[in-house]
Design brief:
Order of helices and strands: EHEEEEEEEEEEE
Number of strands: 12
Strand content: 35-45%
Radius of gyration: 17 Å
Length: about 160
């Protein structure tokens, strides 16, 4: 593989998941695997009006960055909500202080680019629904915190 392979982000092919509920129907384009990335990741999201990237959450293992490419988006964070326009960049640290939600509240389609390190085993907290997501090597497991059991239960 060539060490440098330019990729044009002007016209990416977005994938949409038919199972995403209304309000979370964002198109995704993930070029990392095609380019050979292993420990960092980039996703370009296409956000039609009224749609969000995902529920409000924070990561335990990954730092994330958000760059607005086109349009405007609302970014919810622990201190409130900010409206960001094209060319604005923000950073979300690991843990509760990095909680965030990204939504297109405008009338035009928006595009954002998110990049982060990629953890082999990731965990994500969803404060609004009090869930924890655990994602070991591509698996997806979500639990309510109230479902927690004692460390030795069942042993």
């Amino acid at each position: 593989m060539r060490p440098v392979r330019p990729l044009d982000l002007a016209h990416p092919e977005f994938a949409y998941d038919d199972e995403d509920p209304e309000g979370f129907r964002a198109g995704t384009f993930r070029p990392g695997p095609e380019l050979g990335a292993a420990i960092t990741g980039v996703t370009v999201y296409e956000l039609p009006p009224g749609q969000a990237v995902c529920p409000y959450h924070y990561e335990y293992a990954e730092e994330e960055w958000l760059l607005v490419l086109a349009g405007t988006v609302e970014v919810r964070h622990p201190e409130g909500t900010e409206t960001l326009a094209a060319s604005q960049l923000v950073f979300f640290p690991r843990g509760p202080e990095g909680a965030h939600g990204i939504r297109n509240a405008g009338e035009d389609t928006a595009r954002v680019l998110m990049f982060s390190n990629v953890a082999e085993v990731a965990a994500t907290a969803y404060p609004d629904s009090d869930k924890i997501g655990v994602f070991p090597n591509g698996e997806r497991h979500l639990f309510r915190r109230s479902d927690a059991v004692d460390y030795y239960e069942g042993e």
